[in-house]
Amino acid sequence: MIKWANIFISMILEALPFIIIGSIISSTIQLFISEERVKKILPKSRFVSIIFAALFGVFIPICECAIVPIARSLIKKGVPIAVAIVFMLSVPIVNPIVILSTFYAFNDIRIVLIRALGGIISAIVIGVLIEFFTNKKEEVIKVKSQYENICDCGCEVGDYFYNKSKIRLCLEHASKEFFNILRYYIFGSFLSSIFIVILKEEILNNYNKGVLMPIILMMLLSFLLSLCSEADAFIGKSFSNYFGVPAISAFLIIGPMLDLKNAILISSYFKKSFAIKLFLLIILVVIGFSMTLTLVYS
């Protein structure tokens, strides 16, 4: 019980700064950045925009805990779905803290390159495919009843809106965003901490044979453990005694893209049909990339 409580509390405390940052950035985008400005910032070429989104994480240390509401805000501002999804999936993998922690954990530049390049390539493929499978007129963002009488920045319409400064409105919306994210994150952390406690070494020994099974098992573990991308490399390193590079890469790539906490957040912000398509594409693309690595590490 004490071990579970320590894990549960540490998961929440580690994520809090990033959730706050994500909430503020999301609110700032909603209030201060117009659709016209977004269109001016993005390269006119769709291909260049996607590459730009995939590499943007190198400059911002934001983990998967906070990236979902930011991606939603970008879509609401007219950013193409492919660009927003590539941004959402790649940033938690290629941000500088994750790259440094991965190198420190493994002390192997090959693992760092596999994770970074694998994350970028997988994010681009997923982004392109999700836009291809999404109808242009399809609403992908979920509209919650609590926001039905709220303007685009998240604040109630009427005199209340016009009589307040944008900075105050931004902070108020950021606080609403923060608590909205936090409740889903706490629920996901609660479940993940339970899985961490009950995980047994016998499971690893029984399912580390073959080619596909180790990859699937490591992806499942990454999903259930829901580790922050800044720290998951150290756990991934501990699994290297049982699994090869392809399975470890699957663990390191899918975690920042799709874990139990993130799945709950994505499901709360996006339409069910869109979320399901996104989940399936993430799983299939990461399996495909990891299976490709088996040709080198067989």
Automatic annotation (TrEMBL):
The lineage of its organism: Bacteria, Bacillati, Bacillota, Clostridia, Eubacteriales. It is a multi-pass membrane protein. This is Permease. Belongs to the UPF0718 family. Keywords: Cell membrane, Membrane, Transmembrane, Transmembrane helix. It holds the Pfam family ArsP_1. It comes from Clostridium gallinarum. It is found in: Cell membrane. The chain crosses the membrane at residues 12-33, 45-67, 79-106, 112-134, 181-199, 211-227, 239-258, 278-297.
